[in-house]
Amino acid sequence: MSQTPQSSPPARRSVLRGTVAASAALALPAVGAAPALALSGRPRAAWGVQTGDVTATSGLVWVRSDRPARMIVETSATGSFRRARRWDGPLLGPGTDFTGTTALRGLPAGRQVHYRVTLADPDDYRRTGEAVYGTFRTAPANRRRGVRFLWSGDIAGQGWGINPDIGGYRAYEEMRRLDPDFFLCSGDTVYADGPLVPSVTLPDGRVWRNVVTQEKSKVAETLDEYRGNFRYNLLDENVRRFNAQVPTIVQWDDHEVRNNWYPGQILDDARYTEKDVDVLARRSMRAFAEYFPVSTLSTSGHGTEGRMHRVVRHGPLLDVFVLDMRTYRDANSPNRRADEGEGILGAAQLAWLKRELDRSNAVWKVIAADMPLGLVVPDGSANFEAVAQGDPGAPLGRELQIAELLRHIKHRRITGTVWLTADVHYTSAQHYAPERAAFKDFAPFWEFVSGPLAAGGFPANALDGTFGPDRVFVRAPQRANVSPMESPQYFGEVDIDGDSGELTVRLRAEGGTVLFAKTLQPGRVGQ
């Protein structure tokens, strides 16, 4: 998103007034507070549990303690935990903000796995806190069971945070009740550049009330401030309940660091004392790795290792190719170069993606992009943030990398590619076809957009004709930054039938309405 919050950071006293009642109601420790180190206490996992990057035989389990503790995970085929299997996890300490992830391997395919996390005093393993419970399904070993998952993005953006008056992030509870196999979070998982104020008066006179924490009262710059932004969403009971039941595949976009950022950028923003965006990005990536279970990221307590882009294999029906369209991009510009440069993916990631698509035997290859392809997303008056720049002619700038990828998919006859994204804060379906395009050396494909999940809504973006998009469906507000009290939040559903192999996409609005549905046939290079 190119839009930035319009409100100024509130005074500290007003922040604390707005925080106390809401935080108490959530029955969680004060966000950002120093961990209690009393020897008489027992470790507490008040922030819930979550799982990530679950495959047929593996998965990651995450927890946060309120003090130093040893993480212990037990898994079982039943909720009774008879014949439980034990996994000794890491020691949780201040180097990782008391968070930790334990890798589970050798799990049974296509089964419901029950797990519980216990935190033990590192000096006396007999002293343990109350166990926290969760469950997830592993991917199937064969295709008959089918796969169903949800996706969306954009959480706590544009000044709209956790509002206790409307029940917090209600869409999470609605998604949980659909009981998907997993949730694909398509970026903007937090708005580290979007401070919250205790209340906002809406155009119709109603008042929106935010839970506000110290870290959410200014733009994030320090590691602790980024950590506080990732903790913020866990204050919401709907999120914690959802995390305990639904595994997540997560990626990042710009607002995890700062609006529309790119590597090498030096900020001209008075809100920031740290102007080097690369420094901010390293701090954010470390906090991201601490607060989300991601199979290709790890943190040693001194820094972050690994990468965001990866393939998560979900049985014979589905591979999810998680892109990172932020870390390796070139600078935002008018985006009309005749040469490729680093593009939107960088040369190494593009080569990786082509190689992994070649290797995939899955019926469907979902390409999880944190930005859309043919929607024009501006960055100021002259520059552009995403792939497209509004010139409907031959590929230029970042479009050159996408043209190379689409050409590769066609010539290697790679079947079943579908693009999913969020970012633009509305929901839509675009069909791309060479007969409508200036660049014609590709096979037709679909791109589906959903979001926001808990942020402001915005009008639909213009289309760029280079790859021939046809906007088959769109639902978007008519004005900018419409609050979640005025417009429903959006998420998408993908349902792959085990018998026929058909993939059905449903674009959903909060409240249970299916706005649009499209069924795609398996085994085709283009749809």
TrEMBL record:
It comes from the Bacteria. Residues 155-507 form the PhoD-like phosphatase metallophosphatase domain. The keyword Signal applies. InterPro entries: Metallo-depent_PP-like (IPR029052), PhoD-like_MPP (IPR018946), PhoD-like_sf (IPR038607), PhoD_N (IPR032093), Phospholipid_Metab_Enz (IPR052900), TAT_signal (IPR006311). Keywords: Signal. Residues 48-138 form the Phospholipase D N-terminal domain. The keyword Signal applies. Residues 1-33 form the signal peptide. This is Alkaline phosphatase.
